[in-house]
Every structure is written in structure tokens, then in C-alpha cells.
Design a protein that fits this description.
It is built from 12 helices and 2 strands; from the N terminus they run H-H-H-H-E-E-H-H-H-H-H-H-H-H. With 331 residues, the protein is an all-alpha fold. Helix 2 packs antiparallel against helix 7 and helix 4 crosses helix 5. It is globular. Keywords: Cell cycle, Cell division, Cell membrane, Cell shape, Cell wall biogenesis/degradation, Magnesium, Membrane, Metal-binding, Peptidoglycan synthesis, Transferase, Transmembrane, Transmembrane helix.
Length: 331
Amino acid sequence: MDGVWLVLGETLLLSLGVTVLLGPLAIPVLHRLKFGQQVRDDGPASHLQKTGTPTMGGVMFLAGITVAGLWLAGRSAETLLMLGVTVGFGVIGLLDDLIKVVLKRPLGLKAREKMLGQVLLSALLAVLAVSCLGRGTDIVLPFSGFSVPGGLTIELGVWGYIIFAVLVVTGTANAVNLTDGLDGLAAGVTAVAAAAMVCLALLTGEAGVAAVLAAVAGGCLGFLVYNHHPARVFMGDTGSLALGGALGAAAVLTRSELFLVITGGIYVLEALSVILQVISFQLFGRRIFRMSPLHHHFELAGWSENRVVFTFWAAALLFAALGLAGLYRLG
């Protein structure tokens, strides 16, 4: 086990190092190409000064994750599949970002185009996990004894599980995307979630998946060097979709989909705030929050950007601890 933790540490540090080293190279290039972020007119006034900050910085940690994953995480089918999904979601985000900054289409890819790519990648992951990797078609319930024999499961069947897995992976990717609205928020929250999921992966014997998750955590920490407030670069959809795809893929490969819902509780809250806001406005003509996603509500309530980010980071730690507690049986 000591050797496993050594590899995890090396993978985290290599991903972190590659990401940090790419910063002085990538950020000036993004500046010269004028790949700047467009800021919402209806957002907090303090965000207007962020206009023009380079986006698509997710390529930095995506490179770090890929290099560290291929070099140190091994070449198992699970590892390569997780890396493939991560890069695939990153490519979808990259296309979205390029359309925004090059073609000046603020909405990027059409929603159905973006979702189609995500669904196809997620479905391919689920099919391969079930048919080639012996993942099974059941889901494990938290707090039922995942860490010992006899944990409670629900059998979904092949098609039921594929649909469920698609919802988990695409839902996670888009929830991370919604969370990426403040300097350092998504990177910090994802570093915590990925670190917690390392333990879940080790428990299921997926050391390769655990190593890729360590690379994800390292890449996020390295990116924070440039993305903390005031951010010098944003990850863009390139980064947020890649991170969400990585977490979702890891959950599928380790049978921990429902644990991700707990461990990634911040993502759930951010996504729910948007859903509830839309439903409330359409049904009653009233908004529940000052603005959604949730982090903007607190900004408009007078919180500083750093206060919101640090509070959400702290909450992410609590959700991670709760997710790990879910490994054990209640009572």
C-alpha cells in the first residue's frame, strides 16, 4: 500500500508541476490570440473588470492530467478509458470556447450539439464498463456498507444502467461548468472532490483510476496558482467539462455514482439553484435567488468574491467527509 500512495503522490505532483510550468507559456499565447472571456451584463458589477481575461486555460491542467496519467497511472483499460473521457469532454469544451472567442458566438456550440457529444461519450463509457470491464449494472447505496461485504445495491439492468451513467457523467460535467463562475471556485472544489474519490477508487481496487484522480487534484491545485483571485486566466468550458467528465467517469468505473452526489455536493447545490430558479420564474414569475448559480446569489447579497470561494471550499471539505462516511453502514 505504501507503494500505491507513493505513486499517487508522484502523479499529483507531476500533474501540478506540468500545469504550473505551462502557465508562463500558455497565458501570453492566449493573450496574443485575444481569447478573452466575455462577462455577462446582468452579473455582479465587480465582474466587469474580468472582461478580456484569457479563457481556455483548462488546456494547461488537461495537459498535466494527461501526461501524469499516461506516465505514472499505468496503462490499464480503466485508466485509459477515464483519460479518454476526460480528454473527450475537454475537446467538446475547447470547441465551445473556440466558437465563442473566434466566431464571436457568445453561446458557443448549440446546446443540442454540445449535449450530443457528451451523451455519446458517456454512453460509450457505460457500454465499455459493463461489457468489457465487468462493471455490472447495479448501483451501490451510500451508508449501507460499501467498505464491507453486504452493501445494499439496486439492480438497474443494462439499459437502465447506461441511461443512469449518462445522466451521472453529463450531469457532473455541466454542474462543474455551472460552478466555474468565480476565481478559483471550480478548481478548488474539484481538487477536494477528486482527492476524496481517490479513497473510493482505492477501496474498489482501481489504483489506476485513483492515480488519474490524483492527477486531476494536482492539475487543479497547479491551476489555482494562476486562477486564484484576481485570476490571470480562466479554465473555460475546456477545463470545466474535462473536470466534470473525469469525476463522472471515475464514479462509473468505481461503482460510486451516488457517493459522487454527496462528495460533489457543491455541484449539486449549484445545479439545483439554476433548476429551481428557472422553475420558480416560469411557474410563479418570481425568483428564489438574487441570481443563479448559487455563488452569484451570495455575491449580490454583499459577500466578497473571496468570501464566497473560501466558504464553498470549506463546504466542499464537509461534503467530501460526508461522502467518505457513506462508505460505512449506519447503525
